[in-house]
Amino acid sequence: MKTMNTKTLVISLAFVALAACSSEEPAPAEETVSEESAVEEAAVEEQVEAVTEEAADEEIEVVEESAAVVEDTGDAEIVLAQADVAAETPTYRYQEGTHYTRLVPTQPTFGGADKVEVVEFFMYGCPHCYEFEPTINRWDAEKPANVRFVRAPVMWNDVAELHGQIFYTAEALVRTGAIENGPAFHAAVFDAIHVRGNQLLRMNAIQAFFERFGVSEADFNREWNGFWVAQQMQTARNLAGPRRYNVTGVPAIVVNGKYRTSTVESGTYAELINIINELVEREAAR
Fold it and tell me: Hey, what long-range contacts does 101-105 have (CB within 8 A, 24 or more apart)?
């Protein structure tokens, strides 16, 4: 009897093992199997099913974990970040060495760092500066709010020195209110030299010119010989010199102590304005 039970159990286990590896259902067990064998067979089947279910659960967990690793690569974020950097890089039309000169190192400016500074170096006796006046005046009237425009006379000879002193004396008198309209005075000096033939080379002619704008002799003498005018002339002389901006022709433009350009590089006054605007844009984007 014990021998029969053992054989029956072996046969039953064989059917159970076959059912775990095949998609077909096993044949039903013989009715002659004893109740004890049936209990043992059921226990074996429950163990097999439990092991099978546990293995299935483990496989599901592995699949989910693998999927999570793939999603966490971050490749898409890296590509997007690189694309954003490329898109923000501006494209400029004008080139260093062709349309402007880069001053190295960057030089001091007339004013503070709160605005982008554009300086026009000029000379009252220069016919090209006189021709450039309407163009630069229009630009000055329409310039962005973050730009400061400064005029500075070059003083390469005695006549240029004398005319530079006229310019800064007028600036001083505008500051005190003795001259009400600074731009009108500046335009009148150009007009006197290039249209009326008054070269403003003698002191009596210069003083008489100031009197036309309501400046008294006392106010004129005070500012003409004053410290502020001498200081401004020295600053302009130094910045235009070879150790700073190295201005060798006028009209010349220096942007923020960093870029120098002129009609030699631009070819026309209109193109010079375009170059100025792009250089201002470069500095404003820093």
Answer: 101/259, 101/260, 101/261, 101/265, 102/258, 102/259, 103/245, 103/246, 103/254, 103/257, 103/258, 103/259, 103/260
